[in-house]
């Protein structure tokens, strides 16, 4: 990691220094700050415009595809989608599916992370690299055999099997993050407990977990957010409309039987659908500066 | 891939026999035991389907109108490599991945993270929140948002009209560019977070010393910053590349692969073949190609992650 002095560009540095002239360092710095702010504002606007559309459309009467101030405000779109069939059942299904899947991922990842973090083995590095590779395994590529397997074993269209499958697909990322968080807990504390005769599972529960609960929460929330937005897995594995989570049921707004695309209702539904993950993310980043914890845990 | 991990160090000093080895072995086994649930789930739900994927790819399995499945050897692959739509799907996948992940998300994420170090706190937190918001939004919602954004009567053309720039129907004229930009919009937050964390660990003295020596902005970035965050770059590239290779919902919501297959990436074409035309065998053969492409990308990045390369 460390950069030796030799790697710094020493040759030719003098000429560069010689040509430096004009404004003082401080004003260069101030100009840099203004420029950075300006560029960031432009980037921020580019990210804002599509998000703005969903808000303006949800409260506007009539159909529109562009961001514009609504001439007539209405709450009708929200009222129209706030029914059991359209909104509440899909949200509940999503909660069961993603909540259950997250539980599977987090529990199994904690168990797996412990030996990976604490013991040395020649197999550890290959295993971890496999995990890292599996993290990005194109799930779309294996969904066809999974679909065939689920059909043959009569697991298709069953909530519990879809839940366990969702949990398994999130497992590699969960293990990877959890192991990195666990590495941050010093092993010395446990060594004392071990010499007192405590089992490794006891030290995991009483010493390691209490010290890394922010990490556990980060993994939990990220796993849940990932699953909440997952469209393809429930789209393939669940069939019965009464079992579909919001990520799939949203397609009904494109149903030609309902007279074309209902953009207003789609926008209102999207807002309802986004609220849980937005709240979770806010809670996490407020309480734990979670984004940086995630970034820190992702270093190679 | 993972099964033997529970019995760690299987080959350690195999010649040594006697009582002393046994407790050590059982201890190693006990230590690895917590890995078991993870290994079982990964084997059943991820490794299993991959093996099945390989098997199906060599059969003529179909879901309808056919009772028996035959082993057909390389027929599916021969069919694939004689199929123009398959070549098109590979091309679209590579364009999509390079454009949106390797160039778009990666560089934009790095640029934002570097600008954050210069910007004022208010700008930093507002822009950061917007970028992250685009990432937290569920995939399908993101797809619809950007569908509306790129539509003929959508916001992008309105902005272009305001700036007196030529407008066009993006989803028809260049759908692959539209879905790529959509993926940049949706995924940049991840790279931004990774690089923000990585840059915060680049020692200040190092860049300052380089600045003292007269190194310009670009030189400092190229010779000081980049080598220091090299491992983060490799990890980030690997994760976002693999993620982007398998993007389905975003494209499905925006274009369904159309018009006339101009945004049909491999996941979309695989889905059409296997689950709409019910040609499971042919579809999995293509899925296998997708896995191989992912593995090839990973190998490149893993080389950069090797510890001895430090």
From TrEMBL, chain A:
<feature type="transmembrane region" description="Helical">
    <location>
        <begin position="263"/>
        <end position="283"/>
    </location>
</feature>
<dbReference type="InterPro" id="IPR000515">
    <property type="entry name" value="MetI-like"/>
</dbReference>
<feature type="region of interest" description="Disordered">
    <location>
        <begin position="1"/>
        <end position="24"/>
    </location>
</feature>
<dbReference type="GO" id="GO:0005886">
    <property type="term" value="C:plasma membrane"/>
</dbReference>
<feature type="transmembrane region" description="Helical">
    <location>
        <begin position="91"/>
        <end position="114"/>
    </location>
</feature>
<keyword id="KW-0472">Membrane</keyword>
<feature type="transmembrane region" description="Helical">
    <location>
        <begin position="126"/>
        <end position="147"/>
    </location>
</feature>
<keyword id="KW-1003">Cell membrane</keyword>
<feature type="transmembrane region" description="Helical">
    <location>
        <begin position="34"/>
        <end position="55"/>
    </location>
</feature>
<feature type="transmembrane region" description="Helical">
    <location>
        <begin position="211"/>
        <end position="239"/>
    </location>
</feature>
<comment type="similarity">
    <text>Belongs to the binding-protein-dependent transport system permease family.</text>
</comment>
<keyword id="KW-1133">Transmembrane helix</keyword>
<dbReference type="InterPro" id="IPR050901">
    <property type="entry name" value="BP-dep_ABC_trans_perm"/>
</dbReference>
<feature type="transmembrane region" description="Helical">
    <location>
        <begin position="159"/>
        <end position="178"/>
    </location>
</feature>
<keyword id="KW-0812">Transmembrane</keyword>
<dbReference type="Pfam" id="PF00528">
    <property type="entry name" value="BPD_transp_1"/>
</dbReference>
<protein>
    <submittedName>
        <fullName>Sugar ABC transporter permease</fullName>
    </submittedName>
</protein>
<dbReference type="InterPro" id="IPR035906">
    <property type="entry name" value="MetI-like_sf"/>
</dbReference>
<feature type="domain" description="ABC transmembrane type-1">
    <location>
        <begin position="91"/>
        <end position="284"/>
    </location>
</feature>
<keyword id="KW-0813">Transport</keyword>
<dbReference type="GO" id="GO:0055085">
    <property type="term" value="P:transmembrane transport"/>
</dbReference>
UniProtKB/TrEMBL annotation, chain B:
<feature type="transmembrane region" description="Helical">
    <location>
        <begin position="89"/>
        <end position="115"/>
    </location>
</feature>
<feature type="domain" description="ABC transmembrane type-1">
    <location>
        <begin position="91"/>
        <end position="301"/>
    </location>
</feature>
<comment type="similarity">
    <text>Belongs to the binding-protein-dependent transport system permease family.</text>
</comment>
<keyword id="KW-1003">Cell membrane</keyword>
<dbReference type="InterPro" id="IPR000515">
    <property type="entry name" value="MetI-like"/>
</dbReference>
<keyword id="KW-0813">Transport</keyword>
<keyword id="KW-0812">Transmembrane</keyword>
<dbReference type="GO" id="GO:0055085">
    <property type="term" value="P:transmembrane transport"/>
</dbReference>
<feature type="transmembrane region" description="Helical">
    <location>
        <begin position="127"/>
        <end position="150"/>
    </location>
</feature>
<feature type="transmembrane region" description="Helical">
    <location>
        <begin position="35"/>
        <end position="58"/>
    </location>
</feature>
<dbReference type="GO" id="GO:0005886">
    <property type="term" value="C:plasma membrane"/>
</dbReference>
<protein>
    <submittedName>
        <fullName>Amino acid ABC transporter permease</fullName>
    </submittedName>
</protein>
<dbReference type="InterPro" id="IPR035906">
    <property type="entry name" value="MetI-like_sf"/>
</dbReference>
<feature type="transmembrane region" description="Helical">
    <location>
        <begin position="170"/>
        <end position="195"/>
    </location>
</feature>
<dbReference type="Pfam" id="PF00528">
    <property type="entry name" value="BPD_transp_1"/>
</dbReference>
<keyword id="KW-1133">Transmembrane helix</keyword>
<feature type="transmembrane region" description="Helical">
    <location>
        <begin position="280"/>
        <end position="302"/>
    </location>
</feature>
<feature type="transmembrane region" description="Helical">
    <location>
        <begin position="233"/>
        <end position="254"/>
    </location>
</feature>
<keyword id="KW-0472">Membrane</keyword>
């Amino acid at each position: 990691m460390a950069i030796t002095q030799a790697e710094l560009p020493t040759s030719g540095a003098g000429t560069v220094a010689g040509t430096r002239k004009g404004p003082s360092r401080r004003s260069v710095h101030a100009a840099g700050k203004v420029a950075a702010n300006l560029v960031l504002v432009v980037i921020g606007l580019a990210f804002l415009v599509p998000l703005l559309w969903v808000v303006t459309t949800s409260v506007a009467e009539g159909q529109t595809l562009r961001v514009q101030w609504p001439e007539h405000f209405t709450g009708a779109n929200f009222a129209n989608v706030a029914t059991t069939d359209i909104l509440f059942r899909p949200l509940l299904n999503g909660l069961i599916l993603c909540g259950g899947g997250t539980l599977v991922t987090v529990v199994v990842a904690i168990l797996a992370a412990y030996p990976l973090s604490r013991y040395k083995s020649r197999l550890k590095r290959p295993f971890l690299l496999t995990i890292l590779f599996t993290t990005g395994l194109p799930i779309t590529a294996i969904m066809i055999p999974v679909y065939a397997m689920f059909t043959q074993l009569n697991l298709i269209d069953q909530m519990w099997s879809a839940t366990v499958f969702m949990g398994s697909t999130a497992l590699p990322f969960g293990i990877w993050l959890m192991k990195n968080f666990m590495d941050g807990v010093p092993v010395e504390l446990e060594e004392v407990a071990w010499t007192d005769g405590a089992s490794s599972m006891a030290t995991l529960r009483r010493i390691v977990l209490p010290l890394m609960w922010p990490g556990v929460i980060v993994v939990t929330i990220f796993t849940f957010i990932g699953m909440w937005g997952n469209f393809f897995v429930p789209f393939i594995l669940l069939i019965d409309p009464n079992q579909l989570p919001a990520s799939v049921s949203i397609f009904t707004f494109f149903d030609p039987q309902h007279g074309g695309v209902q953009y207003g209702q789609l926008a209102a539904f999207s807002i309802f659908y986004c609220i849980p993950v937005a709240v979770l993310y806010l809670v996490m980043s407020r309480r734990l500066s979670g984004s940086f914890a995630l970034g820190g845990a992702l270093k190679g | 891939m993972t099964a033997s991990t529970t019995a760690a160090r299987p080959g350690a000093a195999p010649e040594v026999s006697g009582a002393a080895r046994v407790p050590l072995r059982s201890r190693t086994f006990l230590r690895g035991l917590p890995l078991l649930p993870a290994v079982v789930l990964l084997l059943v739900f991820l490794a299993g389907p991959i093996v099945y994927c390989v098997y199906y790819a060599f059969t003529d399995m179909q879901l309808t109108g056919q009772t028996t499945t035959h082993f057909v050897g390389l027929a599916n692959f021969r069919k694939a490599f004689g199929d123009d739509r398959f070549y098109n799907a590979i091309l679209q996948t590579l364009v999509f991945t390079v454009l949106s992940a390797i160039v778009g998300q990666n560089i934009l994420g790095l640029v934002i993270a570097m600008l954050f170090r210069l910007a004022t706190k208010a700008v930093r937190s507002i822009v950061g929140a917007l970028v992250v918001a685009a990432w937290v939004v569920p995939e399908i919602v993101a797809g619809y948002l950007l569908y509306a954004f790129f539509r003929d009567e959508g916001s992008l053309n309105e902005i272009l009209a305001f700036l007196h720039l030529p407008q066009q129907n993006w989803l028809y004229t260049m759908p692959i560019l539209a879905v790529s930009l959509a993926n940049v919009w949706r995924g940049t937050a991840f790279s931004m977070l990774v690089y923000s964390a990585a840059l915060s660990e680049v020692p200040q003295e190092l860049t300052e010393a380089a600045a003292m020596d007269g190194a310009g902005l670009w030189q400092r970035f190229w010779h000081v910053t980049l080598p220091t965050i090299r491992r983060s770059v490799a990890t980030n590239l690997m994760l976002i590349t693999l993620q982007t290779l398998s993007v389905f919902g975003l494209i499905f919501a925006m274009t369904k692969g159309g018009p006339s297959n101009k945004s049909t990436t491999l996941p979309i074409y695989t889905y059409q073949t296997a689950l709409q035309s019910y040609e499971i065998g042919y579809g999995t053969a293509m899925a296998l190609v997708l896995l191989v492409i992912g593995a090839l990308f990973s190998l490149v990045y893993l080389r950069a992650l090797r510890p001895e390369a430090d």
